[in-house]
Every structure is written in C-alpha cells, then in structure tokens.
Amino acid sequence: MRWLFKISLRYLISGRGSTNLVSLIALLGVSIGVAALLLTMGVFSGFQRELKEKILSTTPHIIISLFETESFHESRIKELKEITEFYPVVLYQGIISKDGRLLSVGIKAMKEEDIRRIYKVQIKEGIAVGVGLAGIMDIKSGQEVLLLSPMGQATPFGFIPKMKSFPVDGIFQKGVFDQDYATVVMTMEKAEELFSTHHQLFGYEVYIKDPYKAQEVRKKLEELLGPSALVRSWIDLNSALFNALQFEKVALSFVLMLMVLIASFNITSLLFMKVREKVRDIAILRTFGLRRRQVVLIFLLQGLILGSTGTLMGLLFSLVGKFLINQYKLIRVPSDIYFMDHIPAYFEIGDILFTLIGAFLLSLISSLLPAYRAGKESIVRVLKNE
Length: 386
Prior knowledge:
Elements: H1 2-13, H2 17-58, E1 62-66, H3 75-78, E2 83-98, E3 101-110, H4 112-119, E4 127-130, H5 131-137, E5 144-155, E6 158-172, H6 177-182, E7 183-187, H7 188-195, E8 201-208, H8 214-225, E9 229-233, H9 234-237, H10 239-277, H11 279-287, H12 292-328, H13 335-338, H14 349-375, H15 379-385
Parallel strand pairs: 3-7, 4-6
Antiparallel strand pairs: 1-8, 1-9, 2-3, 2-5, 2-8, 4-7, 5-6
C-alpha cells in the first residue's frame, strides 16, 4: 500500500503543462467550494446563535398563563430547582390616546420592584411605554396620556368606556417589536383601578438556569400545574422563525455543495488525462505483476489526495475568513431590524463534518470512472501501439 501511494503521488505531481494546469484548477475548485460552504453555514449558525442570545436577553424563558387562579399557589413553581426567578404578570387590552390619536396596546401589569428590575424604569404614579410606541404617538417622558378600557361600564346614558389619565414615568427599549411598539407597563394596583379584575389574563414570567433546556422545564411545569395552566417556552414562541432559518441553511448548504460537485468534475477530467498520459507506464507495471485492482487503486488514490488536499485548504481558507469576519465585523446589518449591528461566523462541529465528509465522498465518486478505465487497459494493445 505504501508504494502504491508513492506511485499515485508521483503521477499526480509529474505531468505536462496542461495536466498541471487542470490539477491546479481542480485543487482550487474544491478548496473554494469547501470554503464557501463552510463560511455560508458559519454565518447562518452565527446569526441563529446571536439571535437566540438577543431573544433570551429580552424575553422570559417560560411564560405561564393561568386559567384558574383561585386554587393556584406560587409554591408549585418554587418546587423546580431549575427555576431561578419568576414574576407575576397580569395582561389587559386597552387603548392609549394622546392629542386625539388612538392606538390599541397591550397593558402589562407587574409589581413595582419587578418593573424596575426588568425594564430599568422607575414607576411612581404613572406608566412606562416602549420606545417604538413613544415614537409613533410622539410621547415624551413626563407627559400625560389617556388610557381607555374597552370594556367600560353601562350607564343610563349608554355604554361609557372607563378612562384615566396617567403621566409617562419612563420609556423602555427591549429590542422586541411587540414590547417596544405595542406594550404599556404599569403597576398592578393602578391597572386594577382602571380595568378592575375582569377580562384579564394572569400568569408568570419564569427564568431558568439553562435557557436551552426550556422544553424540559416546560414539560415538568405542565405536569405540575395540570390543565389549569398554559405553559409556553421561548422556543415555542419563536419556533416558526428558527425552523425557517434552519430550512434556509439546509437548502443553501445543498446548493453550495453543488459547487464542490462541479469542482469534482475537474478531478474526473484530470484523471482521464492522467490515464492517457500514463498508459505506457501502466502497461509496463502490469508486465511486472501489477494487478488490475492495484491500477484502479493508484488512480483512486490520486483523486482522493487531490480532493483531501483541496478540502483541507478550503477548511484553512474558511478559518481565516471566519477570523476576518469576526475580527473586523465585515457583515454589517441594520441594528433596528435584526437587534445586532453585525453577523458573526460560528462553526458547528456537525457542519464541519458534513462538509468534509461530503467533499471526500464526492472526490472518491469522481475518481471511480477514470480509475476503472485505467484498470481495463489491455497490456497487449498498449505495448503493440507504443
């Protein structure tokens, strides 16, 4: 096997000008294809990873919505050691008004200390609004706004919605559309004065030690709380987005793998040229006892050496590209849309193995036909013609 490898390497290096050029093209084709595939998957993985981190920094890990509050006790949530903290939340639907403009919003009622801890604003007697909502309604901190309850109350003069004026104590920014553009935060006491205890949704926002184990904790909470509660994790709430990103990554990976396949065609062309160039050498080696399968193996090894070298070069190119992308933040994106100002590259072990094994197999497949052709050469015909 060792001398077969030496012969393969000698045949691959030695050659005429045209075959050397084709060898270089095949080598660069495989390496560029592998580098493009790895960098593309790396950017997709980096975007997903960064997006998940941004989501986790702005949203609770698990949301519990209670259908029955009378028989519920917070001690049930405390039973799970995976949970680090949780906050009670009451949700209402309302309308905010300023200078004649009306906008439907979600009202999020929490304890004053929880608002200060999560939203970084100090609420006294008023409310806090998202930065997007403040921009749309032209709301400034300290101004008065009107909140209306759509349920209202019946009077002898007809149905009159309940309304109350509140000062804006703070403006927050969470980086999530529904909170920045459609949420008003206030204390539970003030919310109950306006909305009473009817037409509300009571629940908890839960944070756990390892956010990526949210599905396991969700199942435990569902078993613990039973049918009286709806439990959703941050993965459930964003599953459509992550599934779409993963589908795009897989589809684009297979498309880019075609680049490696096309580059492997150059290996096929090169080996056919090598067979024609080395046909006299093959015949001489056969007369010295070289078997057909050993001839096939010599040309298979040439294709594998070329493909493996190109694959390793592509891996090296991709690592250099990853360093440049992350170091100099080459892929810039609008921060107001993607919650980040650049996309990093991140290589996952599975993606690297998929690319390396795929490139190796394509190099092997592209070498089969010319290697088989070399093994079928007739010694008598070659020696007679040469």
